[in-house]
Design brief:
The chain is an alpha/beta fold. The protein is built from seven helices and six strands, in the order E-E-E-H-E-H-H-E-H-H-E-H-H. A hairpin with a 2-residue loop joins strand 1 and strand 2.
Length: about 180
């Protein structure tokens, strides 16, 4: 049986909830409600998961640095094997978008060989179980507007601001948005 571990820690954006199966990250979420509600959410989605903050010590340090605006290389093992092939392709390519840069849904679709599949890419990003580590917040609409985000557009904007990206800058600089 696979070992499921989780940790919850407070951050500037709320409670960060991380879950790993056999030491590979399978979920990351930010909850704005209290610690008790965050624990309840983990137990309902991942019955049998054991709270183990020590197992996430390195990840917590990396996330803390990132959320203070320090560029971080999230060299973290993830497990997205439960997702469909197209979604895995999208998420794998997404990890190549550099810190502080954004790309459009259409750019990402073309990059993986599905030109014209911007909406499908958006749907794949919606299924990303590990935002921030797999940086779906770095994908915006071709017109420079934010688009959606699984943890809410407000958090997406805050993450982009942490990385030095402002939507006004993206719209105002031709060639910035790919």
């Amino acid at each position: 049986m696979a070992a499921l571990n989780f940790a919850i820690f407070e951050s500037s954006m709320g409670y960060v909830v991380v879950v790993a199966r056999d030491d590979k990250l399978i979920s990351l979420d930010i909850k704005e409600q209290g610690l008790h509600e965050a624990r309840k959410g983990v137990s309902s989605c991942y019955p049998g998961a054991v709270e183990s903050p020590v197992a996430f010590k390195t990840l917590r340090t990396l996330l803390d640095r990132y959320l203070r605006g320090v560029p971080v290389d999230f060299n973290v093992e993830v497990d997205i094997s439960s997702l469909g092939m197209f979604t895995r392709q999208v998420l794998s390519e997404l990890r190549n978008i550099p810190y502080g840069e954004v790309r459009s849904y259409g750019w990402l679709a073309a990059k993986i060989g599905y030109k014209g599949a911007a909406r499908a890419v958006g749907q794949a990003l919606k299924r990303n179980p590990i935002p921030i580590i797999i940086p779906c917040h770095r994908v915006i609409r071709g017109d420079g507007s934010l688009g959606g985000f699984s943890m809410g557009v407000r958090i997406k904007e805050r993450l982009l601001l942490l990385e030095g990206v402002t939507i006004a800058n993206v719209r105002g600089k031709p060639g910035t948005l790919h």
